[in-house]
Amino acid sequence: MSSYGFLAGCYDQLTYDVNYTAWADYVEKQFSRHGLPGRTVLDLACGTGSLTWELASRGYEMIGVDRSPEMLAQAAEKERKSAAVSPMFLCQSMERLDLYGTIDACVCCLDSVNYVTNPKTLCRAFRRVHLFLMPGGLFLFDVNTPEKLQGLDGQVFLDETEDAYCVWRTEYSKRSRLCSYYMDIFQLDKASGQWTRGEELHQERAYTAEELTAFLHQAGFRDIRTYGNLKLRSPHPGEERIFFVARKDSTPHAG
Question: CATH number of the domain at 7-144+207-248, out of 3.40.50.150, 3.40.630.40, 3.30.530.20, 1.10.10.10?
């Protein structure tokens, strides 16, 4: 079962309830709160590019990176006249990020960090982001908390639209700290009127805020702050999603 090979074609339909305008509003609030050295922004693990295009329409010079060519194909088809400059899309994994120049900020949204299930790989990804950030640049991302992922164990969900139908069940392993999503996806081919079926497995790892803070420090980030779900306050106990904002120092540190 290949991740997103089948899901890409109906991802936007099944995630219609994600308010990308609200997410972009929040990103801009954090940019304003912390300040940016410029307006070149990387959307890491951009998926089908909905947030990428939303930020592009607000005047940011966007680069979208994702490891799924199928998801990027969907992103490239979303050209919006409201964007003065169309985003650049690159097919890369997080830990092998390789840009043509520096960026002023990196956003990695919708718990994409959880999908990097190997801590060493995630540390490499953080180092790559740090490498390409301008001094003073920001790294903003969110994660599903361990409490949320543990609470998904044994749950069954159904997402349905006119042209797509997805049933997914979840299993959480305390030993591996992995939450596995087993998906059965049915998609309607409008031309033939036939339904096709696909299976995919997706996994998220539960990371604590302390672990992620340590990884960011190891990568060279400073001024690391956490926030509640789309909030400008500190996380509350038991919050299911938290945000991180970390800065690359404008001056090097010894050692």
Answer: 3.40.50.150
